[in-house]
Structures are given as C-alpha cells and as structure tokens.
Design goal:
The chain is of the alpha/beta class and 193 residues long. The protein is 36% helix and 21% strand. Helix 1 crosses helix 6. Bound molecules: 5-O-phosphono-beta-D-ribofuranosylamine.
C-alpha cells in the first residue's frame, strides 16, 4: 500500500459524504487521496462538488438496468479505476448493486456507508424504515462490501436517538451529520491497519 491510499469515491446523489471525506483529507485528519470521483448519473451534484475541489471526475456509460450496471458498464468501471491507479473504492450514496468484476478486482477494498445500524434496515430509505418500525435508536454503519446487499463486515457504527417529533427528513438529516463524522474516522481506522 502507498503511504497515502488512492481512493475513488462513487456516488449517485448530492455528495455530502464525499465532501466530508475531502474536507477531512484537506484538514489532515484522513491520510488519503481522492484520485477520482465517479457517478452513474451525469447530473449528480457529487460531480459538481468534486470539480469545485479540482478533483478528476468520470461518468459511467448509461446502463440498461436501474439498480445495477450492465456487464459492459462494470468492465468500463474497473478499467477507469485501474487506469487511475485506485487502491480503495469508496461508495458514498452509490445507488447500484456492486457485482463482478468490480468485487473480484477489489477484494475487501470496497467500503460503503449505510444510514442505519446494520443489520437492521438494509436497502433503500433506511431512516424511513426505522421510523415505521418505531425504534428508539438508529444510526449509520460503515462496512466492507460483498456480493450481498448491505451485508459485509462492519467497520464502525454511530448511534443516534430517534426523537418523537422526528419526520423522515429530520431523522435523515441527523443521520447524515453522524455519517460525516463516522466515515472519515472509519476510513482512518482501516488505512492504519
Ligand atoms: C447517505 O445517507 C448514505 O448513507 C447512503 O446514501 C446517502 C448519500 O448521501 N448510502 P450523500 O450523497 O453523501 O449526501
């Protein structure tokens, strides 16, 4: 491993976790380099935010499927990552299921953040699932990615209380605040090993 691990961040959305990671790097709290920011959606805000930091970006070719890349898309993604000398693939709101050849090219080198205390509330809109279930506590999880959805080895978790007055929006916003602390801290722990 190089002294400053080379990361690619993949996201489909607004990229607030990407910003938290890049700010932690710039503040000297996370020893890493984001060498590439990739989205499956050309209009995703994460790309605009990456460009504002002066980071290289890429967009994946359109997929015939909504929830995964096609086989050609996965191959194109692996090529992009290899060409950029990427060591770690960081999923930050990336809304496609990860498959081979990506999984086999980066074994135990793909990390995701999920907005619940896994194994509770896997899948989409986990904060809404928590509210519907009436739990008193939820949070976020950083975990390794394997072939099963939101099921890889857990690296770190942060708990937050669910408040009686919480709406899906307020709960998600507080989970995201916790994510922005947890994600850089969890990656620091992984890269120190
Ligand atoms: C986060 O809540 C993360 O847990 C989930 O997707 C969301 C991404 O948010 N996987 P952002 O794009 O980083 O703001």
């Amino acid at each position: 491993m190089s002294t400053s691990p080379r990361l690619a961040v993949l996201g489909s959305g607004k990229g607030s976790n990407f910003v938290a990671l890049q700010e932690a790097i710039l503040a000297g709290k996370l020893n890493a380099t984001i060498a590439l920011v990739i989205s499956d959606l050309p209009d995703a805000t994460i790309l605009t935010r990456a460009k504002a930091f002066g980071l290289p970006t890429a967009t994946l070719p359109p997929s015939p499927f909504k929830t995964k890349l096609g086989p050609e898309g996965e191959i194109a993604l692996v090529q992009l990552l290899q060409d950029a000398g990427i060591e770690w693939v960081i999923l930050a709101g990336y809304m496609r299921v990860v498959k081979d050849p990506l999984l086999s090219t980066f074994p135990n080198r793909i990390i995701n953040i999920h907005p619940s205390l896994l194994p509770a509330f896997k899948g989409l809109r986990a904060w809404e699932q928590a509210l519907t279930a009436g739990v008193k506590e939820t949070g976020c999880t950083v975990h390794f990615v394997n072939k099963d959805i939101d099921a890889g080895e857990i690296i770190a978790q942060q708990r937050i209380p669910v408040l009686t007055e919480d709406t899906p929006e307020t709960l998600h916003a507080r989970i995201q605040e916790a994510e922005h602390e947890l994600f850089p801290a969890a990656l620091t722990k992984v890269f120190q090993k």
